[in-house]
Amino acid sequence: MSTYNISIGSDFRLRILDAIEQIQIRYIEYGDTNRVFDGLLEALLGLTGSEYGFIGEILKDEDETPYRKTRSITDIAWDEETRDLYDRIAEHGLEFRPRKGPSSLGGA
């Protein structure tokens, strides 16, 4: 078994600590998890250099079946219809529930 030594530069560490601080401030100041997850996604995109992403959570329904709920997603709307869809997703989250039978990509 090999061991990898990953070195993180001090600038990157400071950026991570700053992101954590900003997310904590949002939560304390607003108590609104939507703002917290949006801030977390923004921070993660900045730290990783990614353009798009989402944050999701695995939950269970009444019969203990797991499903994924999107908590924050990058705005990729390019027309009125996708803008409306994004606004609905941003407000309530998008749920991916497994289909009966083989597992689906969007399921938990």
In short:
The protein has 108 residues and is α+β, with helices and mostly antiparallel strands. It contains three helices and three strands, in the order H-H-E-E-H-E.
Question: What features would you highlight for this structure?
Answer:
108 residues, alpha+beta, 2 domains, 16% strand, globular
What can you see in these coordinates?
The chain contains three helices and three strands. The chain has two domains: 9-51; 55-108, no CATH class. The longest helix is centred in the N-terminal third of the chain and has 21 residues, at 10-30. With 108 residues, the chain is α+β, with helices and mostly antiparallel strands. Helix content is 46%, strand content 16%. α1 packs antiparallel against α2 (33-48). The chain has helices spanning 10-30, 33-48, 80-92; strands at 54-60, 66-73, 95-96. The chain is globular. A three-stranded antiparallel beta sheet has the order 1-2-3. A hairpin with a 5-residue loop joins β1 (54-60) and β2.
Order of H and E elements: HHEEHE
Largest sheet: 3 strands, antiparallel
As residue ranges, the low-confidence spans are none
Rg calculated over all Cα atoms:
17 Å
> Count of DSSP E strands?
3
How many angstroms does the end-to-end distance come to?
31 Å
> Strand sequence of the main sheet, in spatial order?
1-2-3
- The proportion of strand residues reads 15-25%
Question: Which geometry do the CA atoms define?
Answer: globular
Mean pLDDT: 80
Number of helices: 3
| Fraction of helical residues | 40-55%
The helix/strand class is alpha+beta
**How many discrete structural domains?**
2
